[in-house]
Design a protein that fits this description.
Length: 316
């Protein structure tokens, strides 16, 4: 299966980061960025173009500008032309640096967009990388409900009608926040980080059988929803089966994988009189404790082994 690639228009980047257009190329509106990698043309300004990717936005700061000023005019023009002749998507000049006149001329001659920002180079790089990772991240859509409980993102899954939305509603009433109901769009932001959000059409909406569609943000306020959050734990709802063997101690550590990212998961049996909202609150806090290095099940096992080794019973 070929993985779909995503893109973001250069014009959207310019607008979202309030960049100043020093020169707009003739194809500016049609330029799309497909790579979340960004380059600074330091090596290129000394003529090294091995491993150079022409599809990356180039960022120039004070260091590059200072180096170019050390070159005589002919050498400076040669280095600048070498960069722009490769038809890069755009060059962004940071930190209030006034670009050399030769840079402006080369942008016009090779019809390459030239942009400027007042931000420091490192600050702009961080902002731009975050924008590109968000828009270009691999993604998939999963059926389920995503809520943030005690700072932990819980992706609740289970067959239709098992009660995922009703539990999420109870959690919202208890002060937690809804991210997505029914369809959750997952994105791999980093190698081990997965975030979830709602498709725009159903954002902040929830379906309750017998009631219909409700707008959670309007009913419970803006504090009851989040546009996105990390997915920290997957909770699988299953119907209670008396013959099934459920994990009693929590020593079994299960995981599931989305987009190559492994996420811890637990299975919660659903039965009448079980307060699932409280169970999920505890699950969130327990998972947070595990991330901090404390595992109650392993601590119980350690105490059990110590009691056997010492010959002391549980009640002593």
């Amino acid at each position: 299966m070929v993985q779909q690639k995503y893109s973001i228009k250069l014009s959207n980047i310019v607008e979202s980061h309030s960049l100043i257009k020093l020169y707009e190329s003739s194809d500016f509106e049609s330029i799309e960025i497909h790579s979340y990698n960004i380059s600074r043309p330091s090596l290129q300004f000394i003529g090294f173009y091995d491993y150079f990717n022409t599809d990356r936005i180039q960022i120039m700061g004070r260091a590059e500008a200072a180096y170019l000023r050390t070159l005589d005019e002919l050498e400076r023009e040669k280095m600048i032309d070498g960069l722009f002749s490769r038809k890069i998507p755009a060059l962004v000049v940071c930190h209030r640096v006034v670009p050399d006149a030769l840079i402006v001329e080369a942008a016009r001659r090779y019809d390459v967009t030239l942009l400027s920002t007042d931000l420091e180079t490192s600050e702009f790089l961080a902002q731009l990388i975050n924008t590109l990772r968000t828009h270009l991240a691999p993604r998939t859509t999963e059926h389920g409900v995503l809520v943030q409980v005690h700072g932990e993102g819980l992706l609740i899954r289970g067959e239709s009608g098992i009660g995922k939305s009703e539990v999420a509603l109870e959690l919202i009433k208890r002060g937690h926040r809804l991210v997505a109901d029914d369809a959750v769009e997952l994105r791999r932001m980093e190698r081990r980080r997965l975030t979830g959000s709602a498709p725009k059409m159903i954002r902040y909406l929830m379906e309750l059988r017998g009631l219909g569609i409700i707008d959670v943000r309007r009913i419970y306020g803006v504090g009851s929803v989040l546009p996105s959050c990390d997915v920290d734990l997957v909770v699988n709802f299953v119907h209670w089966d008396e013959n099934a063997n459920y994990d009693r101690l929590g020593l079994e550590e299960e995981t599931t994988t989305f987009l190559g990212v492994s996420v811890p998961q637990i299975t919660v049996p659903v039965a009448p009189a079980r307060n699932l909202a409280i169970i999920l609150e505890v699950a969130a806090m327990n998972h947070r404790e595990k991330k901090l290095g404390y595992n109650a099940a392993k601590e119980f096992l350690r105490r059990h082994d110590d009691s056997i080794d010492s010959g002391v019973g549980f009640g002593e």
